[in-house]
Amino acid sequence: MKKLNRRSFFKLGALGVAVGVFKPVRAGELLRPAFTNDPKGKKIVISTWNHGMAANSKAWEVLSASGAAIDAVEQGVMVTEADVTNRSVGIGGRPDRDGHVTLDACIMDHHSKCGSVAFLEGIAHPISVARAVMERTQHVMLVGEGAYEFAVMHGFDKAKMPLPEVKKDWKEWKKEHKDEFKKPEINNENHDTIGLLAMDGNGDLSGACTTSGWAYKLHGRVGDSPIIGAGLFVDNEVGAATATGVGEAVIRIAGSHTVVELMRQGKSPQEACQLAVERIIAKHDDLTGLQVGFIALNKKGEYGAYSVYKGFNFALRKDGQEELIDAEYDRDW
Questions:
Q1: What global pTM score does this model have?
Q2: Which of 48, 80, 193, 258 is catalytic?
Q3: CATH numbers and ranges of domains, the chain
Q4: Pick from 96, 107, 160, 161: nearest CA to 134
């Protein structure tokens, strides 16, 4: 074998650098999953709980008019935020232990742009404020008074909360429980958040999540719903996921991000949701009342859902199909 002299060695080195400059190896390309199916035209919407049916219907209107997924997810969950009969999202939400209705929401698009608000009071549509944070600021999250001032400055509608009937229920609760702090019951009656995922006709993904949070929670508590990577995560190369249930448990495993990363590794949406739930179970000694559910959607248009306990359901809308589906689960109550 011919030996390299010093000059030849440096020539080869320079050539290697040049190749590296003009043909860089990107880590993202090494990690990108082999999703070869063309998702274009496979419009689909999925969302948590039965209130997702109405939200999906609005989102589908947007997609059917060739609208973008980001508009579909925002307008979809706005339906739930405006539902005065809903006690865990928006205007009809239950207050915290001190009588304040504090709202959390986040939104994320196919460019990985995201916005969030937390501990927001007196605004009708926190999801729209979250989108404004995403589009009009250099920040991701605004909270409390700052989020409220931002919302007012940008002309978002105010709303008086809690509603009279909700306030009456809270007063009765205070009489019975005083300073008692108890776990929530997350089930068919106490629907918790709404998380909504959509893929539009271009194959682009977006997601939204919004809630009034844990009823009678400690004042100042924030759950997973406004936290990117916990309550919601979207990666347009892979898929999207959102969570519902006890937010503290979701935060502990960065739940929605975990689901998406499992899909990146080749798991189906169904498998990814189940594995994330099993991780939550493994991380908690006491599972009493600890309901958590995930839904997920990948770039092929495949979807999945799984929960700790029986009772979680999700709404599905796509061409030729509109239904409420009971999610698979790990255990009965």
A1: 0.88
A2: 193
A3: 44-331 (3.60.20.30)
A4: 107
- Separation CA 316–CA 289 (nearest Å): 26
pLDDT along the chain (333 residues), means of 10: 45 43 41 52 94 98 98 98 96 95 98 98 98 98 98 98 96 80 54 91 98 94 97 98 97 98 98 98 94 97 97 96 97 94
Q: Is the dihedral of CA 132, 244, 61, 159 positive or negative?
A: negative
Verify whether residue 193 is a known catalytic residue.
Answer: yes
